[in-house]
Amino acid sequence: MSSEKFFIAHQCKFIASLFFFIVAYLFSAAAFSAELPDFTALVEKSSPAVVKIQIETLSGYHLSQREMTAGKNRAEVLGLGSGFIIESDGYILTNYHVIKDADKIVVRMNDRREFDAEVVGSDSRSDIALLKVNASDLPVLKLDASDKLKVGEWVLAIGSPFGLDYSVSQGIVSAIGRSLPNGENENYVPFIQTDVAINPGNSGGPLFNLVGDVVGINSQIVSRTGGSMGLSFAIPASVVRNVVAQLKDKGYVTRGWLGVSIQEVDRSLAASFGLSKPEGALVAQVVAGGPADKAGVTEGDIIMAFEGKPVLFAEDLSHLVGQVTPHSKAELVLVRHGQQQTMRVDVGELSDRHADTSRRAVHKARRDDIQGALGIQVSPLDAQQAAQLNTTTGGVLVRAIRRGSAAEKAGLQPGDVIVQLGFANVENPAALQQIISSLAAGSIQPIRFFRAGQPIFRSIVMP
Which residues participate in catalysis according to the annotation? Predict the structure, then answer.
């Protein structure tokens, strides 16, 4: 074969290979794009029911998304947020933090109509506000009722970030049931975490699934810059439905209350309580006379399920109890001394007094120190100190801790008040010594104490 024919043959092979590669690439690209969702129909259908929230206040600088007005009255502050219509006669949802300081609320539709809005009711614990405008035949959005949202699903947000009306962003569900305690250290919302781009001005706007149902209200972001970093959080539709029904009915929200302080169960605590793995909500304190106390719940119990739903993490219990109607009966499954028990409890009603966390400090006790095997110096509590801690079983005040001791390794600090070691109450220093003597060396035991008025469980390795 001549060199010319050889060159032509190889050139033909190269062209054929290149053609095959291009066809394969185009085919795979088309197949890949076919798997991606097309949001255009959803946006066109849903946008008319999404609104822009503008608030004006003369009381100072607003804490939600805001910017100063350019008008003559320089004292006014224009706050910006989003919302959406849920009923055609003018009921609108947004975030509580968007409207909380408002003297005037204006709702702007995407057809540029504007309405003055009144607050029907609001709930700071869930960050939800229900507004009403005087209008009819408005477009509406539907709240998802399936509660079947899964991690990895596509979701879409429509809102007014930085005042840019009706901006659309999309992403996926990153996690479900996230706990983000509010400023009062309360935790009643199992947030949906997404990577949807949410920025100031999106607050109060809807989060959609691919069907077009609202699965959440965009509420918060975690950011080092003030803008989106792929960590956004929405209030789930299950919470929204409950809150909206109550706000429409009575203008405020009531929640269930058990009357317990709880904490997370880590690996060492699980071992000390005889659990095979960390799970449940560890009861650190029971409010005297509260629903849990009346049902027979005690400190050291680990609540594993509430009303048939598992409690994998401590915050799960707060989410579940908060959704229950006060004065109804509920079933608790708990572990006590390694044995599973089931109890019925009459759920109470959460009030501001119950939600407030006591931060009373421990007063100094009279000196009656002893040096124990745990490496601590302790003194007894008097009646006044015990009353401040709401404990009727006594306790001992930690005065000093030896470096490298079992107590230090367990995380105890001077000023802590020990009230339980193992499964026995520590009434006084003599009782503590007796309990220490009865526990096997090297065993892992739960130890319960108060720090700055707060009950805490830790695990300690007996020396």
Answer: 97, 127, 203
User: Greatest CA span in the chain, whole angstroms?
Assistant: 111
User: In sequence order, which residues have a C-beta less than 8 Å from that of residue 29 and are 6 or more positions away?
Assistant: none
- Between the CA of residue 266 and those of 226, 269, 278, 359, 439, what are the distances in Å? 33, 5, 5, 24, 22
H-type alpha helices, 3-161: 3-35, 40-46, 96-99
The label of the residue with tokens 């306790």 reads 395
64 within 8 A of 203, measured Cβ to Cβ = yes
> For 53-99, how does the pLDDT look when each residue is reduced to its tens digit (9 = 90+)?
998 876 544 444 444 334 444 446 578 899 999 999 999 999 999 99
Tell whether the torsion through CA atoms of 115, 116, 120 and 124 is positive or negative: positive
Residues 6+ apart with CB under 8 A from 263: 281, 282, 284, 314, 455, 456, 457
| pLDDT bracket for residue 193 (50, 70, 90) | very high
Torsions phi, psi for 227 (to 5 deg): -115, -175
C-alpha to C-alpha distance for 183 and 328, rounded to whole angstroms? 29
Question: How many residues are present in the chain?
Answer: 463
Contact 317, 297 (CB under 8 A): no
Contact 375, 405 (CB under 8 A): yes
Amino acid letter for position 84: F
First to last CA, the chain: 91
Taking CA atoms, 457 is separated from 421, 447, 454, in Å, by 10, 6, 10
Backbone region of residue 338 per phi and psi (left: phi > 0; alpha: psi in -120 to 50; beta: other values): left
What domains are there in the chain, each with its CATH number? Answer: 42-133 (2.40.10.10), 154-250 (2.40.10.10), 260-355 (2.30.42.10), 376-461 (2.30.42.10)
CA atoms within 13 A of residue 243's CA, in its CB half-sphere: 28
Rounded-to-integer distance, Cα 313 and Cα 317, Å: 8
What is the C-alpha radius of gyration for the chain, rounded to an integer number of angstroms? 29
Q: Name the 3-class secondary structure at 392.
A: coil
Let me know: does 333 contact 342? Beta carbons within 8 Å: yes
Q: For residues 117 and 457, give the distance between their C-alpha atoms in angstroms, rounded to a whole number.
A: 48
pTM for this entry: 0.71
Quick: pLDDT tens for 112-137.
999 999 999 999 999 999 999 999 99
What's the rounded Cα separation, in Å, for the pair 272 and 290?
A: 27
- Which 8-state DSSP code applies to residue 365? P
How are beta strands 417-421 and 167-178 bridged, if at all? unpaired
- Exposed, middle or buried: residue 149 (CB in 10 Å: 0-12, 13-18, 19+)? buried
Q: Which of 256, 271, 267, 390 is nearest to 329 (CA)?
A: 256
